[in-house]
Amino acid sequence: MTAIELRGVTKEFPSVTAVSDLDLTVEEGEVYGFLGPNGAGKSTTIDMVLDLVRPTEGTVTVLGRDATADSVAIRRRTGVLPDGFSVYDRLSGRRHVEFAIESKEADAEADPVLERVGLLEDADRKAGGYSKGMRQRLALAMALVGEPDLLILDEPSSGLDPAGVKDMREIVAAEAARGATVFFSSHVLAQVEAVCDRVGILREGELVAEDSIEGLREAVGDGETLEVAVDDATDAVVDAVRAVEGVSRVEADGAMLRVSCDPGVKTRVIAAAEDAGAVVDDFHTEEASLEDLFLAYTEGEAAPTGREDAATGEVDA
Ligand SMILES: Nc1ncnc2c1ncn2[C@@H]1O[C@H](COP(=O)(O)OP(=O)(O)OP(=O)(O)O)[C@@H](O)[C@H]1O
User: Fold this and answer.
1) Which atom of ligand 1 is nearest to the CA of 83?
2) What pLDDT shows up at residue 52?
3) Residue 222: is its pLDDT beyond 60?
4) Residue ranges of the ABC transporter domain (predicted)?
5) 90 or 249, higher pLDDT
6) CA angle at residue 274 from 271 to 277, to 5 degrees?
7) Which atom of ligand 1 is nearest to the CA of 187?
8) Which residue segments constitute the domains of the chain, with CATH numbers given?
9) What phi and psi values does residue 241 have, to the nearest 5 degrees?
């Protein structure tokens, strides 16, 4: 069974098409990162999965059920951490979790889940006095109630300090290990890289890439940057390196050369620099960061070749 399946889903608002003919499949047990720039249609997609918004066209199936017809049953097996969660100021943290237990009719106690998110000591305080990070931990606690089959986390690390981000990452890993599916939308790309098996990148309502991070790196192609520390990055050295086959770009910053090149031409780059009179002190390669990949897929003409294949999921990981 797939956890989330969208087929030909379009959502038109009066002035904008937020999601356009979207096909998306999230397998059971998968941690799926959902990325895209502002306004790409991520929240609208999540809202359709949760039946808060109805598609103009297409079908949404969640945990094997129709998202519209069976929304109550789906909600009972789904934990949601919404973007911009607001607390009931006068209720305690514990009361919030109890409320989640009651509304899901879960056979669960509040304290273990409060402890899991690090809020047990503050559980009896009014949530109105919680810090932003504490509110986010509370939202996560409510999402975790009743061991849901599907966790939908919209910007889960928002407002969390580094310790909170680490806790959240460990909780996502533990939930996945227990067999839950996690659908994770985020702008914090390092988070996505750390926890997700696969990512989908949405752009103007369409899925422009879907693969493992590794697969996306390969699809982008020239994902490698070689940093070479030399005694003196003269014009002659830069020109010699630029002339090496497989080098697409060279930047000189003081005594540091940054070389964008195909994998496998490293040795020739170093040799060319030395032949041109440079003394190479040190070198190392950097893989394309997720930021680089994200920009490559979402910014205008810079979209990489292979994107069309990636969009149909045909790029091998
Ligand atoms: N209720 C609505 N009425 C009209 N337009 C809407 C509505 N909800 C969303 N939109 C529009 O649909 C498009 C997609 O918005 P959406 O909130 O889904 O994007 P997003 O990827 O979640 O963005 P962000 O990262 O900024 O939260 C935007 O152009 C937005 O203005």
Assistant:
1) 27
2) 94
3) no
4) 4-229
5) 90
6) 150
7) 25
8) 2-77+148-217 (3.40.50.300), 224-287 (3.30.70.100)
9) -70, -40
pLDDT at 313 over 70: no
Is residue 40 in contact with ligand 1, taking CB distance under 6 Å?
yes
Residue closest via CA to ligand 1's atom 24 equals 38
- Provide the pLDDT for residue 223: 56
Query: Which tokens go with 183?
Result: 């659908």
Atom of ligand 1 nearest to the CA of 11: 12
The mean predicted confidence, pLDDT, of the chain is 87
Ligand 1 atom at minimum distance from 53 CA: 1
pLDDT in tens, 123-164: 999 999 999 999 999 999 999 999 999 999 998 888 888 888
What is the mean predicted confidence (pLDDT) over 256-266?
Answer: 84
Instruction: State the residue for tokens 């789904």.
Output: 78
Whether 41 contacts 205, CB under 8 Å: yes
Average pLDDT in the 20-29 region?
95
Predicted pLDDT at 221: 60
Long-range contacts of 267-272 (CB under 8 A, 24+ apart): 268/244, 269/226, 269/228, 269/241, 269/244, 270/228, 272/240, 272/241, 272/243, 272/244
Residue with token string 């590794």? 214
CA of 315 to the centre of ligand 1 (A): 29
Helix (H) or strand (E) holding 279: none
ipTM more than 0.90? yes
Of the candidates 51, 59, 62, the residue with the CA atom closest to the CA atom of residue 22: 59
Collapsing DSSP to helix, strand or coil, 49 comes out as: helix
State whether the beta carbon of 36 lies less than 6 angstroms from ligand 1: yes
